[in-house]
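Subject: sequence -> structure tokens, single chain

Hey, anyone have a minute? Need the predicted structure for the following. Not urgent.
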Amino acid sequence: MCDAMKPSVLVTRAIFPDVIDHLARYFDVDDNQQDAVLDADALKARLAGKAGALTNAADSIDAGLIASLPDLRAVCNMAVGYNNLDIPALTAAGIVATNTPDVLTETTADFGWALLMATARRVTESEHYLRDGRWQRWSYDMLVGMDVYGSTLGILGMGRIGQALARRAAGFGMNVLYHNRSQLPEATERALNARYVSKAELLQQSDHLVLVLPYGPASHHAIGAAELNQMKPTATLVNLARGGIVDDEALAHALKTRRIFAAGSMCSKASPTSIRIC
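Reply:
Had a minute. Here:
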């Protein structure tokens, strides 16, 4: 196939060079190795005439954009989640949509565990305290956190990542509770040493609550003021899911009023990789 006959595709953000090289064997690649963030107008302009797009979770592929791209045949999302894609509109237009499921299960669980530890033990806060030059001498109550070992881990959303977190909890002697749309098989619960409870029980009993449920209209603000008010004042909240799962204003109020002890997040409106320890 000569280069002139190759379909044209857009790679919306920077990616490993060998991926670009591989794509170039089959496509005329319009890459973005300078990693410029494409706003809606720039994305539309760059996609004009393209047969395919390699997108990420920050690229909004909505019905209006889809309608303006008659040549588009495939949108490949470099993410496990795909709420940035209008799947009904893509389907109606005959455009194939793909994602990358189950490629980051253990990696995400590792980051989640690191975030849980940082939140409970105030690791990030302690580092900032030291770097700001505020440390003068030891005191018995300086930056006291919450124990992880022997505590109760609550997991809201017991899919692949939730189960990976539960496996890690065994090394910390934790009591594992979970709530999910459906209860896991008994054999799986035994292997994970996890017990199914209602959402209310999960909120009330967890020392450390980790959110790993998928984001959608039904789970938007699944944790709001009412839920936070049910948690222990000594509890921590860690969000491994999309930012919209938590009502940020309600969480900020809960932290300021010491309704809960601390919160950590891998995703917020401000930044997809932010960490908040309060």
